[in-house]
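User: Can you help me understand a structure? I only have the sequence.
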Amino acid sequence: MKESKFKEIMIDKKAALVTLMLVLFGIFIAFMSIEGQTEEKLNGFKHESVQFEDFTFELMGSNYADNQYTFHFEIVNTSSSSINPSKTFFKIKNDSLVYSSELANIEFGDLNPGMTTSGKVVFKMNKEDLEKGSPIMQIEYGYIFDETIEIELKQ
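Assistant: Let's start by predicting it. Here is the structure, written out as tokens:
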């Protein structure tokens, strides 16, 4: 009887070890995919900083997957008071076509003076839609679209 309990414990230890190894492997794979996404961010369309009244906006890069472009950007509050970056809206114009953003992932809430935040905006579209013509990203800030800046998208 003692021997069977010993075998059960050994089997449980082996199962736990196998489970632990699978979990560690999963974490490793997840880390590698996140690292790859970070590198992808720096590819694609970029644009140097542009100055709004209260902040600077810099397009850090973009990537394309699953019929959507994801644009990565950074906002720096250059004003003397807090701003709300979630009041930023995006469109892309190319020739006679206008694309609205599917999702803008920007920090919600106030961004204090001198602070920086990053975000991303997603557009569902074909990859070829930005490979021809002269694509322009329109960035609007404010609930009543107080301020609008257009930047040329270049790879």
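Now, to help you interpret it: The first strand starts at residue 47 and ends at 51. The mean pLDDT is 80. Let me know which part you'd like to focus on.
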